[in-house]
Amino acid sequence: MWDRNQMAARAAKELQDGTYVNLGIGIPTLVPNFIPEGVTVTLQSENGMLGMGPFPYEGEEDPDLINAGKQTITELPQTAYFDSATSFGMIRGGKIAMAILGAMEVSETGDLANWMIPGKLVKGMGGAMDLVAGVKRVVVVMDHANKHGESKVLKACTLPLTGRAVVDRIISNMGVMDVVPGGLKIVEIADGVTEAELRAATEATIVD
After folding, report:
1. Terminus of the chain with fewer CB atoms < 10 Å: N or C?
2. What is the C-alpha to C-alpha distance for residues 103 and 121, in angstroms, rounded to an integer?
3. Pick the CATH number of 4-43+96-207 from 3.30.1360.120, 3.40.1080.10, 3.30.43.10, 1.10.3720.10
4. What are the tens digits of pLDDT across the range 186-200?
5. Exactly one of 37, 46, 61, 105 is catalytic; which is it?
6. 37 an active-site residue?
């Protein structure tokens, strides 16, 4: 199966030159390490930054310069800053081409649950609901199963939803699947995984 870096590298292949992209917390933050040569994207952070640079070297962190996941980052010569209203205006106005997000659960109809587990303390919704409603394409990067070995790719989500029918593509440690009419379609299978294993690990309906 793919590890976190391999999942991030596969997600980076989804990037198109010249677009504006928002990256969620977790595995998506690794995507900039694997942007293909010749592809230039501008990363947007919903806390008010357009044109995020890479993570800083140890000792060079600026505690005031963070992404939406509270990780320290760097700026670029072309970086722009703005208030939250402007940032969400970009998102809600359809100016962001793609969001690459993590997930706790995804359903076969593209429903997404990625912001809370009932009974557990969470920092808040953040921009997730606005992102899934406002961007042109949503790609989810996630482990295929939870720590108990249970599928996170389900017929129906059990956790509170971030959005209904919003996910276009799922990239897991077992492969790549698209949300299509009737269920999920296998696009690619991870190294060392068979189609039978992928199907067995997926609760959601897989269509041919």
Report:
1. C
2. 17
3. 3.40.1080.10
4. 999 999 999 999 999
5. 46
6. no
